[in-house]
C-alpha cells in the first residue's frame, strides 16, 4: 500500500514538473491608478490562482514597454506577450482591416448594452478570428473603457454645438478612425501619443482632448483644463490581446483559465468605470473648479451622421454598416 502511495505521489510530482509554465508581460499606456491597470492586475491575480502558479502575469503601466502602437506591433511580432490597449481603431490601421473602424465611430452605439450586443455578436467574433489569422493579435475580451466626453482648456470657452469646435485643436490617438471622429465632432484633430497629452494641454499645444471621465482624473488632465462637455460621443472600449501563436501553443485548460480570469477582470473594470463616472462630475466641480457643459447632443449626432455619410466610409466599412450597427 505504501509503495502504491509513493508511486502515486511521484507521478503527481512529475506531472507538475512537466506542466508548462508561462510568464506573460501585459503592457498598457494607462497610469497605475486607472481602472484598466487595476483590472489587469486583477486578471493577473486570478489567472495565477486558477493555474496554480503556472501562469504568471507581469503588469506594466504608463507605457513602460511601449506606447499603444508600439506594444501592439510587438505582440503581433511575438516580442511581447500581451497588450491591454487593443481597440478596433488600432485593428483597422495595424491589421489593414478598415472594417473595424466603424466600431469606434462617433455615436455608433446608443449605450453600453448596445455596444456589448454588437461586440459579442457572431459577426464581430468572426472578425476577431480573421484578425488573429491575419495579424497575430488574438482578442481575449472587450472591456468598457468609459463614455468619451470633450475636455477643453479655458481659452476655448463653453462648447454647445459642433460649430463651436471650429479650429479647436483636439488631441486624438494617431489612427484614422479617431482622427475622423475628431472631424465628425467639428474639431481639428491633432494626433498625439497619450503620454504627451498632459504637457500639451498645459503649454497650449492643443486645446483639448477626449476621454472617459476616469481617465481625465487618473491622467490629471483636470489639472490643466476648464471644461467637460458631455457629448457622450463614444462608448469606449479596450480589447486586451495576446500573441496568437503563443495562444494556440498553450494547453486548452490554460486558455480556459485565461478566459475565466478575463471575465472577472471585465466585471471589475466595468463596475469601477461606471461607479467613477457616476461620482466624478461633482468632484471635478468642487475640487478642480471645472465647468460642466450640457451641449446640444442632437446637433453633434446629426453632424456625425452627415460626416459618415461620405462614400469613403461605406467603402471602408461596408455599405450602410454605420446605420446597420446603430439599429442592431
Low-pLDDT regions: 10-16
Strand order of the largest sheet: 7-6-8-5-9-11
Beta-strand proportion: 15-25%
Gyration radius (Cα, Å) is 22 Å
Tally of DSSP β-strands? 11
Tally of DSSP helical segments:
14
Envelope shape: globular
Estimate the helix proportion, in percent.
Answer: 40-55%
Determine the structural class based on helices, strands and strand pairing: alpha/beta
Brief overview:
With 328 residues, the protein is an alpha/beta fold.
Write the topology of this structure:
Elements lengths: L1 H17 L3 E6 L7 H16 L4 E6 L7 H10 L4 E2 L4 H7 L17 H8 L2 H14 L1 E3 L3 E10 L16 E4 L3 H10 L2 E4 L5 H7 L4 E5 H6 L8 E12 L2 E3 H6 L2 H37 L2 E3 L3 H12 L2 H7 L3 H6 L2
Parallel strand pairs: 1-2, 1-3, 6-7, 6-8, 9-11
Antiparallel strand pairs: 3-10, 4-10, 5-8, 5-9
Helix pairs in contact: 2-11, 7-12
Amino acid at each position: 500500500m505504501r509503495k502504491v502511495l509513493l508511486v502515486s505521489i511521484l507521478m503527481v510530482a512529475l506531472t507538475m514538473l512537466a506542466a508548462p509554465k508561462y510568464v506573460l508581460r501585459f503592457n498598457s499606456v494607462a497610469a497605475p491608478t486607472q481602472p484598466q491597470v487595476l483590472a489587469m492586475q486583477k486578471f493577473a491575480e486570478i489567472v495565477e490562482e486558477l493555474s496554480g502558479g503556472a501562469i504568471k502575469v507581469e503588469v506594466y503601466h504608463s507605457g513602460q514597454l511601449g506606447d499603444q502602437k508600439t506594444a501592439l506591433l510587438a505582440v503581433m511580432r511575438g516580442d511581447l506577450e500581451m497588450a491591454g490597449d487593443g481597440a478596433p481603431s488600432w485593428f483597422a490601421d495595424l491589421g489593414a482591416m478598415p472594417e473595424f473602424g466603424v466600431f469606434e465611430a462617433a455615436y455608433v452605439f446608443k449605450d453600453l448594452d448596445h455596444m456589448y450586443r454588437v461586440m459579442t455578436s457572431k459577426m464581430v467574433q468572426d472578425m476577431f478570428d480573421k484578425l488573429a489569422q491575419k495579424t497575430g493579435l488574438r482578442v481575449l475580451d472587450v472591456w468598457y473603457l468609459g463614455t468619451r466626453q470633450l475636455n477643453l482648456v479655458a481659452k476655448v470657452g463653453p462648447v454647445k454645438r459642433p460649430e463651436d469646435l471650429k479650429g479647436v485643436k483636439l488631441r486624438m490617438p494617431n489612427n484614422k478612425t479617431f482622427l475622423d471622429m475628431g472631424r465628425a465632432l467639428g474639431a481639428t484633430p491633432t494626433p498625439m501619443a497619450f503620454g504627451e497629452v498632459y504637457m500639451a494641454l498645459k503649454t497650449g499645444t492643443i486645446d483639448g482632448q477626449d476621454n472617459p471621465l476616469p481617465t481625465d482624473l487618473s491622467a490629471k488632465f483636470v489639472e490643466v483644463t476648464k471644461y467637460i462637455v458631455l457629448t457622450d460621443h463614444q462608448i469606449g472600449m479596450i480589447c486586451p490581446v495576446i500573441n496568437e501563436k503563443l495562444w494556440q501553443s498553450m494547453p486548452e485548460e490554460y486558455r480556459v483559465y485565461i478566459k475565466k480570469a478575463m471575465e472577472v477582470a471585465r466585471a471589475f473594470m466595468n463596475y469601477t468605470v461606471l461607479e467613477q463616472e457616476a461620482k466624478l462630475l461633482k468632484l471635478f466641480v468642487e475640487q478642480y473648479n471645472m465647468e460642466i457643459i450640457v451641449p446640444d447632443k442632437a446637433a453633434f449626432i446629426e453632424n456625425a451622421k452627415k460626416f459618415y455619410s461620405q462614400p469613403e466610409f461605406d467603402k471602408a466599412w461596408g455599405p450602410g454598416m454605420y446605420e446597420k450597427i446603430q439599429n442592431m
